[in-house]
UniProtKB/TrEMBL annotation:
InterPro entries: P-loop_NTPase, TPR-like_helical_dom_sf. It comes from Caballeronia concitans. Transmembrane segments: none annotated. The lineage of its organism: Bacteria, Pseudomonadati, Pseudomonadota, Betaproteobacteria, Burkholderiales. This is Tetratricopeptide repeat protein.
Length: 823
């Protein structure tokens, strides 16, 4: 890849003007830094031990959803020390070091470039002298990066892309080249668990847009990890980026068309902080209310809503449901008050991965008071918080319910934060109205044409504009009916008149039943079984639950999703890594009728699968809840500790350390807090020496804490003290950590000690012992353990690393200078 960037550098310098050169040079440097940061992430994932679920890596991976120019610099600044300490001591020498003849090291020079990019090209004015100066500076920066980090760039062969880090070969799972051209990554996103990279080819003459599908095991996936409900999102702004804590789902469609008037109304409402607290997006079913709201707020999070106005710091999205998992177990909401109060509790997950029982002992105004107190304690005002409540009409079915709903939302809007509501009704509350009705004819026509191309509906593609306009008018320019028509034509290969006839002569329910029967007839028997099991489950449906059913039936999850997308069986809330599924009532009745018609033995088999999947969902929830309760919640009880956690997520490490110190002073006997602080010092700051006293203190305060002993063991191993680390791991196993995990950690420690001194007398015995311990880890693993698969993959990774190192030592292929750096 080094040759690719040097070749493009020559092309950029040959352009006729400094402005053109600077533009393309910036693209080259952006691609170069992205490639280096991806390679560094892959190296850490593949050749270093996972620490604390690698939450430090996850924040970097999440931000590739909208990568800024500064993100690769932050990643490399954080990971270069980790790679030097555990993989290769000579990794990117010159990143921190200042070479002779230079006034600053490479990382400082790159930070200055990022500041220039944000200040001048992005949000300021570039005059001719500055353009010429920074064209020269950027070209020199590219040369310096290639000189310092060229060896860390992946190599490209006909079959694979891989990086050589010292003596370790790191396969790269993320596409970084297309043919002999580099790539600029614009977005890494997941929809319903399927990961895609969107970007452009690095070319001055043809920078075409490209999209790649990623393997399920790519570095951005959060498989088998505890995923917090809320995530920080970096939003580009005119002055500097702004962080928003949110759980806003992804867009519902890639073919959003029009609605300019409605989007402008939402923007005007958002800007009018002083006078308007509530916004009501209302209209009949099928006009796209939820689609509109998600489009607007996804645009907001991507920095695509123009204007210099105050952004909320917290955005919560709540979909009205009848059942859901809570800390009290599986709850069935019986009335409007239960569901409304749950929307407030859902918002509080932005501060903690688990809510204590005290949140379920209060309701009504007492619950609102408690939430206000927490937000105020964290430094948030009511103008910093925004809550989106979707489909409120499902919560209130009577006049009394509607009045209760209006009263509750008014209280939330006055005291907690601003509120956006979607509903089919004009709810009884004072709110800024955003009516959503039929599309203008021109927008309906554009939507029909776009959908025709996407679904491959030949009759729509071949039809003239007058015929398509007539079809839009007949469908009342209703997006749902337009989508239904195009899907039907594409599936049946029929013409527009036949499709319109099928749609227009039926009532809404008759139309859906017709579409259900049509889709059912095209499904395989196995996919039909999946739907019949889903309507038999007691658990709320999400991606993991659906995946369990698909596994039991023997169907690929992707095949089921394809069938699900053929018609309107369910509403889907896309959370990126996973999704929530709500099958509509008419579809539930349809599938239940189908299930009643199957033979008794077959129906019994489906019921057994449903029972097993419900049991798996309950076990998964309990493990998740216990993890959060036992380790995270206890460590972050005080306001200082919670603030330290938030500062860490914001990468304000100096502030986080100060807050941790204050939290320790406030709770000097909190063992979990000491363990979390030790983990922060070790994992985030890389200061094992500073972490040691806090890790030891945690075990003294709670001698039965498996987490405390595990963290102490990791700190001791970081110091190279195998005996002390082993003793701590033994205690961790005694008090609750799995043998699989503890054996694995002992093996990993021995591998890294041997790698630091490959030709010492103890290197080969250590590697032999490491191989034995990895084998013990694999044999002792239990599939019922939540982390079984993650630990199994980690064991497989280190089996390969250990045996490769043994072979290299025997062949005298390991260079002493390629050993990891002693810490």
């Amino acid at each position: 890849m080094e040759k690719i960037y040097l070749r493009e550098l020559e092309k950029a310098l040959a352009l006729p003007s400094p402005a053109e050169s600077l533009s393309y040079l910036s693209s080259i440097l952006r691609s170069l830094l992205q490639s280096l940061s991806i390679a560094a992430l892959e190296t850490v994932v593949q050749a270093t031990p996972t620490v604390d679920d690698d939450v430090d890596l996850k924040q970097f991976c999440d931000r590739f959803a909208q990568p800024s120019d500064g993100l690769p610099v932050e990643i490399l600044d954080a990971l270069v020390p980790r790679i030097r300490g555990m993989v290769f001591r000579g990794y990117m020498t010159g990143w921190f070091e200042t070479p002779s003849g230079q006034n600053e090291n490479l990382v400082t020079a790159l930070v200055n470039w990022v500041e220039f990019r944000n200040k001048r090209p992005a949000h300021g004015v570039l005059d001719a002298p500055t353009t010429e100066l920074w064209a020269n500076n950027t070209a020199e920066l590219i040369r310096r990066v290639v000189a310092v980090a060229g060896g860390a760039l992946p190599s490209v062969t006909s079959s694979a892309v891989a990086a050589h880090v010292g003596d370790v070969l790191i396969p790269i799972s993320i596409p970084l080249v297309l043919g002999d051209q580099g790539i600029v990554i614009g977005k890494v996103a997941s929809r319903k668990g399927v990961w895609k990279v969107q970007g452009q080819v690095l070319s001055w003459t043809d920078a075409r847009e490209i999209t790649f599908d990623l393997a399920p095991s790519n570095i951005f996936a959060a498989e088998d990890k505890i995923v917090d409900k809320f995530k920080w999102r970096e939003v580009p702004r005119s002055s500097k980026s702004f962080l928003i804590l949110n759980n806003v789902p992804g867009r519902q469609t890639a073919n959003f068309v029009g609605r300019t008037k409605e989007l402008d109304k939402l923007k005007d409402w958002l800007m009018d902080i002083a006078d308007s607290r509530t916004c009501l997006v209302f209209g009949d079913g099928g006009f796209g209310k939820t689609t509109l709201v998600l489009e607007f707020f996804n645009n907001l999070l991507e920095g695509c809503v123009e204007g210099d106005f105050k952004l909320p710091s917290v955005i919560g999205f709540y979909t009205a449901k009848r059942t859901k998992w809570t800390e009290e177990g599986l709850v069935h909401f019986k009335g409007i008050s239960d569901a409304m109060e749950d929307s407030v509790r859902e918002l509080m997950y932005c501060f903690s991965p688990v809510l204590g029982k005290e949140w379920f002992k209060v309701d009504g105004r007492a619950l609102i008071d408690k939430a206000v107190t927490v937000f105020s304690g964290e430094g948030f005002t009511r103008d910093d918080v925004l809550l989106i409540i979707d489909n409120t009409e499902t919560l209130s079915t009577s006049q009394v319910d509607a009045e209760e709903l209006g009263s509750f939302i008014s209280q939330v809007a006055k005291r907690i934060g601003r509120v956006v509501i979607t509903s089919r009704r004009r709810e009884l509350l004072a709110a800024e109205p955003v009516p959503v009705s039929q599309l203008p004819e021109s927008e309906a026509l554009l939507l029909l044409q776009k959908l025709g191309k996407e679904y491959g509906a030949r009759a729509v593609i071949q039809a003239g504009e007058p015929r398509l306009r007539q079809a839009c008018q007949q469908l009342m320019c209703k997006p749902l009916l337009i989508d239904t028509l195009v899907r039907y034509i594409a599936r049946s290969s029929s013409g527009i008149p036949e499709g319109l006839d099928q749609i227009l002569r039926k009532t809404s329910d008759e139309l859906l039943e017709f579409l259900y029967e049509d889709a059912w007839a095209r499904m395989t028997a196995a996919v039909q079984d999946v739907f019949m099991v889903l309507v038999s489950l007691a658990s709320p449906l999400d991606g993991k639950c659906v995946g369990d059913v698909c596994t039991q039936i023997g169907v690929q999850h992707a095949e089921f999703q394809s069938s699900l997308g053929e018609t309107y069986f369910a509403s889907i809330v896309d959370q990126g890594d996973s999704y929530d599924l709500e099958i509509v009532e008419l579809a539930k009745d349809f599938f239940r009728q189908k299930k009643r018609r199957v033979p008794g033995e077959e129906s019994e088999r489906l019921d057994k699968i449903a029972f097993k999947v419900d049991k798996q969902a309950t076990e998964r929830y309990e493990i998740d809840r216990n993890y959060r309760m036992d380790r995270v919640a206890d460590g972050f009880r005080s306001e200082y500790a919670k603030a330290a956690k938030i500062a860490t997520i914001k990468k304000e490490y100096g502030k986080a350390k100060e807050l941790y110190d204050l939290a320790i002073l406030e709770e000097p006997l909190n063992a979990a807090l000491h363990e979390r602080y030790a983990s922060f010092l070790l994992r985030t700051l890389g200061k094992a020496t500073d972490a040691l006293p806090y890790a030891k203190r945690a075990t003294q305060l709670d001698a039965h804490s498996a987490d405390a002993w595990l963290t102490l063991g990791l700190v001791q191993y970081k110091h190279g003290d195998l005996a002390a680390g082993d003793a701590a791991m033994s205690k961790a196993a005694k008090y609750g950590k799995t043998a699989q995990l503890c054996f694995l950690r002992e093996a990993i420690a021995r591998y890294h000690v041997a790698k630091q001194e490959p030709y010492s007398k103890r290197a080969m015995p250590l590697l032999k012992e490491a191989d034995r311990l990895v084998t013990l880890s694999v044999k002792s693993g239990m599939s019922s353990d939540f982390y079984y698969l993650k630990n199994r993959r980690e064991a497989e990774k280190y089996t390969h690393l250990i045996r490769t190192l043994v072979t290299q030592i025997n062949r005298r292929e390991v260079l002493a200078e390629n050993a990891a750096q002693r810490t």
